[in-house]
Write a structure and sequence with these properties.
With 244 residues, the chain is an alpha/beta fold. It is built from 8 helices and 12 strands.
Length: 244
């Protein structure tokens, strides 16, 4: 069964390139070139996935994303020429499930769309990765790793008694890692913490949440001492004093 993808991109050459690649991959594709039309088309005929450019005329992609997210759980992949962490976090906070920065490779875009579509329609088969939900019954209500404290019951995080404000996604990731300090988590395992109500999210979202958490708990986010990257695998929360 083919899937229906709506592409909202004001650069007509770029939009046509995306359309061709997606059609070749077996998707039904519609293309629009401004935000108001994108909003209208997505409402009139909800697609299985929306490819949404940030800088659309009329309504920009962020506003389109915000309005559509308030109406349902449509998977949204955002295209943007902006690449700062703050910009990317803003898009994710408004409800984008994944993003790609321009310029990008069309084949990578197609692969990302396949992943989002799979996650939006999970199979009924057995999971291949054990769940790492911070709400697991065996996890204590208060987790302490060095100077870091995670209070699951009250949804609070402290670094040496300094309160740290975390988004729900950041809190879920940090709770899971604090429950197993020094354990290496793959991106896929951390992704399980973010999958909620059937809404798809991308492994790239995990990376953005990790970057944001480092700003909040590390003394030097660019030289993290506690929330560490394990190259080729994922991340771990190192035990020891957290002195941010």
């Amino acid at each position: 069964m083919s899937t229906y993808v709506l592409v909202a991109e004001d650069d007509r050459k770029q939009a046509e390139l995306i359309r061709r690649y997606l059609a070749h991959d077996g998707h039904e594709v519609s293309v629009v070139h401004d935000g108001r039309t994108a909003l209208g088309e997505a409402t009139r005929r909800p697609p299985d996935l929306l490819v949404l450019d940030w800088m659309l005329p009329g309504l920009d992609g962020l506003e389109v994303c915000r309005r559509l997210r308030g109406a349902g759980e449509l998977p949204i992949l955002m295209l943007t020429a902006r690449s700062t962490e703050d910009d990317l976090l803003r898009g994710l906070d408004l409800g984008a499930d994944d993003y790609m920065t321009k310029p990008f490779r069309p084949r990578e875009l197609v692969a990302r769309i396949r992943t989002l579509l799979r996650r939006s329609r999970p199979s009924a088969g057995p999971a291949t990765v054990a769940a790492v939900s911070p709400a697991a019954p065996e996890s204590p209500a208060v987790l302490t790793v060095g100077g870091l404290t995670v209070n699951a019951a009250q949804h609070q995080v402290f670094v040496h008694d300094r309160p740290v404000n975390c988004t729900p996604g950041e809190f879920r990731i940090l709770s899971a890692m604090a429950a197993s300090p020094d354990r290496v988590f793959t991106r896929s395992q951390l992704l399980d913490c973010l999958t909620d109500h059937g809404r798809p999210v991308s492994e790239r979202t995990v990376d953005v949440h990790i970057l944001n958490l480092r700003k909040k708990i590390e003394t030097s986010p660019r030289r993290p001492q506690h929330l560490l990257t394990v190259h080729g695998i994922g991340y771990k929360l190192a035990s020891g004093d957290h002195g941010a």
